[in-house]
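Input record (one chain):
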Amino acid sequence: MKAGIVGLPNVGKSTLFNCLSNAKAQSANFPFCTIEPNIGIINVPDMRMLEIEKIVSPEKVIPANVEIVDIAGLVKGASKGEGLGNQFLANIRETDAIIHLIRCFDSEKIIHVEGSIDPVRDKEIIETELLIKDLEIAEKKLEKIDRIAKTGNKEALKEQSILNIIIESLKKYSPVRNLKFNDEDRLFVSSVQFLSNKPVLYVCNVDEKSLADGNLHVKKFKESLGSEDLDVLTLAVKTEAEINELENYDDRMVFLKDIGLSEPGSSKLIKKAYEMLNLQTFFTAGKKEVRAWTIQKGNTASQAAGVIHSDFEKGFIRAEVISYENFIAYKNEIKVREAGKLKIEGKDYTVKDGDIMHFRFNV
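The corresponding structure, as predicted from the sequence alone:
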């Protein structure tokens, strides 16, 4: 599962990527600095792992991670191939969610490709290009399905109806993600890979002095969203980059305290991206390692076992489950068992976020 950082050229995408990843993307004050998408595998901050580690004292600790992609900047006309449009849109299609970075700071030193600072306009430029491309995709798909629907094929007739609803929505500049479909219809919509169907996290890039209370650019941007149920995070990307350069953890915490933060904004962003991808974590804990495993929300015990190894799922017998809260409260597995807090669950058990699990299997 991966999230792509998108935005106009020169809004701070590569700098943000560098904050999030150990990889060092080129960062410079000119458009199209990023040509090929940079990819980083980024650990998901989770204080629960530290608490489990204190109890277990394992040889190693392996956190969950999410893939972040830094995608080249988009300009007007991208849907028609302007700038790096075709490449940009193809790279977005390969992601599961979008982190849309919006410039909300003033600076004469940093060029804006549109010549002025207007976060609402910037958002609309990118979203319009995605909608135009989606309309092209939907109309091409409909042409093929129309021919099959003429034969009376029931599935084609249903898909024809769904595509007509989508096309009507796109013509009104409303993204596919705003439409409501049942589970069966949603599978078809997902298979078409509409760009505007992906979940979006908006990140307002501000200067340090605007971090606590925002500024007029942020206010204007949030007001423009209206009643849309979208996440917005305010981040001082340049400041985050400076914090990231500090080698000592205590120095970083002092820096954060000085600017009124309890944790880096980049950590909040990673956690938000993880949630946005509909992911959650379960743990395995032993002397060799404490490890966080990533699964989709709603996954069953057998599916979770399969994330570790396909043989675990094939030969699944049962799962021994301890809630994170009980593990911390009783301090070790023996006391959890004695208190009757260890549960034996079958393959259809829905895994809860933070469950500590041990799988029994036979192959």
